[in-house]
Prior knowledge:
Oligomer: single chain
Strand content: 25-35%
Shape: globular
Distance between the termini: 24 Å
Amino acid sequence: MATVELTFSALPAHVRTARLVATAIARRTGVDESMLDEVRLAVGEACSRAVEAHRAHCPGEPIRIELRDDSGRFEVTVSDSAPSEEIKQEQPLDLGMLSDSFMSDFGIAVIEGLADDVEVYPTPKGTNIRMSWPAAVSNSGTGTGTGTGTAAF
């Protein structure tokens, strides 16, 4: 399982970079070409809502993205440090039970429509959005081996 971690400051311009990195890694891990737009848009939506939350609550804190290929899945987790005022639990939400205001404020409905699997973990210390898509399992040495990379911008 390979993992790439990105951290970036809460600036809208960095969302584009995060989308490009996620799309490149998705392609490299074997996500079908027809799904790459969904990856790009879902990651962009999750990062945009994190930037908005950080700018309102903690502009000096970085946003964190973890991208990994794990057992035939490409998984992206976007984590912010902005407190969630609606939900005070540290377990995945049942997305069907969310209020309309929560869904619209965070763009979760858009993300749910784009990603194959979505889990949202809001806590008083921030929100984690985990999204995943099917990826080809490859033994060709094209980057699906083990390793970790970290970048900050």
